[in-house]
Amino acid sequence: MRRIASDLLAKIAIVLLIAAALARPAQAQIGPPPGGGGGTPGGTNGQVQYNNSGAFGGRAVSGTGTTIVTTTGTLNTGDCVKIDANNNMIDAGGACGGSAGVSSITTACPAGLSGVSGPVTITGAVPANEQTGTTYTVQATDCGKLLTFNNASAVAVTLPQAGTSGFLSGFFLAGVQNLGAGAVTITPTTSTINGSASLTLASRQSITGLVGDGTNYFAQVTAVPGGSSGQIQYNNSGSFGGIGAIGIGTSVVKATSLSNSSGTVIPTTTGTLTSGDCVKIDASGNLVDAGGACGGSGSPGGSNGQIQYNNSGSFGGLPVVGSGSSVVEAFSVSGNSGQVAQSTGTLMSGDCANFDGGGNVTDAGAPCNIGAIPTQSAGGLWFPLNTVPGMTPAVGSTGTVGVTYCSPFTIKRTFTFDQIAAQVQTLGTTSLHFALYASALDSTNHHYYPSGSPLVIDNNGPADTATGVVTFTFASNYQVAPGTYWACFQYGDATAKMYAISNSAGLWALYPFLVGTAGAGSSIFAGPTSIKSNTGTFGTWPISTNWTGNSWSEQTAGFVPEFAVHIVSVP
Questions:
Q1: 307 or 172: whose pLDDT is higher?
Q2: How confident is the model over 394-410, as a mean pLDDT?
Q3: Considering only CA atoms, which of 177, 119, 113, 188 is closest in space to residue 150?
Q4: Is the pLDDT of residue 32 over 80?
Q5: Within a 10 A sphere around the Cβ of 399, how many other Cβ atoms?
Q6: DSSP secondary structure letters along 118-175
Q7: The pTM is what?
Q8: Integer Cα distance of 400 and 490 in angstroms
Q9: Is 34 helix (H, G, I), strand (E, B) or coil?
Q10: What is the dihedral of CA 26, 27, 29, 32, to 10 degrees?
Q11: Torsion on CA atoms 222, 223, 224, 230, rounded to nearest 10
Q12: If residue 277 lies in a helix (H) or strand (E), which one and from where to where?
């Protein structure tokens, strides 16, 4: 009996083990199937399952992460979501952009944009507004733009008052550019621009930025080159100025100083410039090296303080006489013994020149004293005309009105004169006249006489009402060639006397050969001082056709003045 019971228990244990083995797969499914379905997942592959009205449903997972975020607390519609320390999603406590985000945006274009509740687009592009007319008014929509103007004529641009609608503080233009030949003038309404009522842009000039502060405008203006194309720039009172460059060289020589005048130029250089060498200008206007020091050896001739002259191709020195501040030009320089005189004071044309104690040339205050001229006056311009060297003047005789008195003279070389001078001895009441005649031989080849009409007559008729030197002038300078001439003279009254030609022995060696008469004119050492003609009136000169035709006669008294001639050039 006991054995049967043991066998029975063993069999029961086996049965229980088999039953347990058969029942194990059902332990993986806890509770009833979702929705009472058949246990098939909902949605598509990879989706998270949820109870979809008693069946499995699938929801897509956002992103590619491996963690599914859970939520805690209450999530309110419209609130922003944030992540807590446990990586749960929680309610941020308010809409996005509140205390934890951007609540407003303020921009300049359009000015005053704030409290944005919708999307805002921000771009980095700068749009351009290209104008080609002669007038334009800036618009609020131009904010942030580049304005360009292109017209051959002047352009007037109006900028609305700063602070008005669309032009509030912060309004700006990215730039303004003048592309045309005409000037562009920007004039704000009421407001100022850079402190002025307007701002003008020259051709090719531009503004790199214009900003309004709600009251006025401020602009950064680019510089524009001064002058014309190709010119070098310089500071012209705070602006750019242009200076022309001479030549086509590639280097610029620095100028010591510049003139604002457009005629000032800075020369360019070509080739190598050697220190100490002289500089010359080539055919293109460039500075080039002369190849050596200026003036050959560059050393002056003579001693310290001497004036330089060309001494056979080299520098020579001439001493300066006197201490004046002006230099009197020398007619010629002979060797190193010549001297160049200086002058002091004012030198008057026609006056005699003197040397003072310092060797300077000074003005004598009047024409040279005719009676004191032996050969020529100081200064080398006044020469005796109808006298011979070494003789003094004779006492004059009272002349007759209407009579022409003439004396002969000869010249050996061509010269040009502009004045004739004589000296009043006794006062008269009117004036004097002078004429120059050519000389001719009469029909009998016997007498020389003033021939034809005068070659030149004075045009001023100097007064004889004061003693001293009188000067006859002419309408223009007159040139005489070598030959024999007659100096003729008329008194305007019967009271004046002139210092006259002397008839002393030895004075007129020439006269006998001219007149050739017997008696008084036959001596080679003595002769009459002059001839005269009784025809005509004061100021009217005889036209000589022969010796006897004008009643010429010889005079031994001193009627004809002693004349001096002022030579201006030889020849």
A1: 172
A2: 84
A3: 177
A4: no
A5: 27
A6: S---------EEEE-SSEEE--GGGTTPEEEE--SS-EEEEEPPTTSTT--TT-EESE
A7: 0.37
A8: 8
A9: helix
A10: 80
A11: -130
A12: none
Cα–Cα distance for residue pair 512/266, rounded to 1 Å:
73
SS3 24: helix
* Structural tokens at position 144: 């942030």
Q: Cα(367)–Cα(23) distance, rounded to whole angstroms?
A: 164
d(Cα 234, Cα 237) in Å, to the nearest integer? 9
Local structure of residue 492 (DSSP, 8 states): S
175 forms beta bridges with 146
- How far, in Å, CA of 40 to CA of 29, rounded? 13
The pLDDT tens digits for 242-258 are 777 666 666 666 554 44
Residue pair 554/518 in contact by the 8 Å Cβ criterion? no
- Residue 111 carries which side chain, given as an amino acid letter? A
The DSSP output letter for 321 is: E
Q: Give dist(CA 374, CA 381) in Å, integer.
A: 13
Which residue has 């920007």 as its token pair? 186
CA distances from 373 to 7, 91, 342, 389, 409 (A): 192, 132, 23, 8, 16
Are 434 and 404 in contact by the 8 Å Cβ rule? The answer is no
CA distances from residue 485 to 33, 129, 181, 220, 482 in whole angstroms, order as listed: 163, 93, 75, 86, 9
Residue 10 is predicted with a pLDDT of 64
* Residue keyed to tokens 């060696």: 509
CATH for 128-221 is: 2.60.120
**Distance (Å, rounded) from C-alpha 291 to C-alpha 280?**
9
Domain with CATH 2.60.120 in the chain: 128-221
520-553 pLDDT, tens digit per residue, is 333 333 445 678 898 878 989 999 888 887 888 8
Q: Is the pLDDT of residue 240 over 50?
A: yes
Whole-angstrom distance, CA of residue 106 vs CA of residue 116: 9
Q: How is 423-474 classified by DSSP, letter by letter?
A: EEEE--SSBEEEEEEEEEE-TTS--EEEEEEEEEE-SS--B-SSSEEEEEEE
Each residue's pLDDT tens digit, 35-91:
444 678 888 887 888 888 888 888 877 666 777 777 888 888 888 888 888 878 888
**Gap between the Cα atoms of 155 and 398, Å rounded:** 89
